[in-house]
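ok, trying the design again with the full structure, not the truncated one.
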């Protein structure tokens, strides 16, 4: 553009080309390809040009330096907020898109609980994990990565890989199987437990016959009473880790620490209030050397099992998870334990249970 906003004339352009070829030191600098395109378009158009971006800029200020100073200050402030509170920034932009961005599988214990900014978003039948950190968790066993197998104890690398696969199968059969979740007896899961482990055999027989605090099937299995509630959709969200080491007598000891999130509604037709039951379960399995321990091929011995449950019933030992909905929560007494975040996996299950008190009903900070 020339002075006063006029386009470069054809005569001036031809003079520029001649002087550029001659190498004149006074030749003007060649405009960019984009500048030439815009100049040609302006010559052809009779009306005002269409803006490249549909935004009318404000009137320019004479003091350009002050504008750049303000922009720089705002950028520095934004970077400071990101550095100090990255979780809060994620919460600002989470929305539907942020909640749908999946997390990578958990490879080590996190150092902090997940952000809580989106907690006010209520779940729906279409989006049962809405407003929950579980919205970004994986589905079922797909979210539970197996560690790399290596020869350990009495097992070869191939045998360890098989033991890890079957350990994850136990998690699927005990906590994710649709029939078991509807209240069926977990026959496939029980078939993976060493039948010669007498104390566990007695525990299982008693737990399903007459459940109690000491003999509660929910320590190992997730079950709902199908006449009371039904699951929403086909997805159970999970997050956790599977690790292993050499145990006693050369056994391969596999530890699973997994949090399961179950969305449910009342069993009555037309029910649409979604509640979530959150179960964190730690199961330690010993794949024993048959030369040293009486066992059956393809079975493990239970070393320990622990559970921490949110909205699954407290002091109600029916053998089923019994979630509460808004009507029950409005009238039920609050727990006598400290408020804890059921999605917080930064503490081990032992630490969490010590903090909440194993014999007390705690209060969940969210569901």
């Amino acid at each position: 553009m020339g002075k006063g906003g006029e386009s470069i004339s054809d005569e001036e352009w031809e003079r520029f080309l001649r002087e550029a070829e001659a190498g004149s030191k006074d030749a003007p600098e060649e405009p960019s390809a984009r500048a030439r395109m815009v100049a040609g378009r302006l010559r052809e158009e009779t009306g005002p040009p269409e803006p490249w971006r549909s935004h009318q800029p404000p009137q320019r200020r004479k003091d350009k330096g002050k504008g750049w100073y303000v922009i720089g200050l705002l950028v520095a402030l934004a970077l400071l907020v990101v550095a100090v509170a990255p979780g809060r920034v994620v919460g600002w932009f989470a929305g539907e898109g942020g909640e749908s961005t999946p997390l990578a599988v958990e490879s080590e214990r996190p150092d902090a609980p997940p952000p809580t900014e989106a907690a006010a978003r209520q779940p729906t039948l279409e989006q049962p994990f809405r407003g929950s950190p579980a919205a970004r968790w994986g589905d079922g066993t797909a979210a539970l990565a197996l560690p790399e197998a290596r020869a350990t104890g009495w097992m070869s690398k191939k045998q360890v890989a098989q033991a890890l696969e079957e350990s994850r199968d136990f998690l699927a059969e005990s906590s994710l199987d649709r029939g078991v979740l509807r209240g069926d007896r977990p026959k496939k899961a029980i078939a993976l437990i060493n039948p010669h482990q007498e104390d566990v055999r007695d525990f299982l027989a008693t737990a399903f016959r007459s459940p109690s605090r000491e003999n509660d099937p929910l320590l190992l299995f997730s079950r709902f009473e199908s006449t009371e509630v039904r699951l929403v959709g086909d997805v159970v969200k999970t997050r956790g880790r599977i690790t292993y080491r050499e145990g006693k007598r050369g056994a391969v000891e596999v530890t699973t620490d997994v949090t399961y999130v179950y969305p449910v509604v009342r069993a009555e037709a037309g029910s649409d209030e979604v509640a979530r039951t959150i179960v964190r379960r730690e199961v330690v399995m010993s794949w024993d050397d048959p030369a040293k321990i009486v066992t059956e091929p393809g079975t493990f011995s239970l070393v320990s099992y622990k559970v921490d449950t949110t909205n699954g019933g407290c002091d109600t030992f029916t053998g089923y998870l019994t979630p509460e909905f808004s009507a029950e929560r409005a009238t039920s007494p609050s727990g006598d334990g400290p408020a804890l975040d059921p999605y917080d996996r930064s503490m081990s299950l032992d630490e969490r249970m010590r903090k909440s008190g194993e014999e007390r009903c705690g209060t969940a900070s969210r569901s």
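Keeping the full-length input from now on. The first helix runs from residue 10 to 22.
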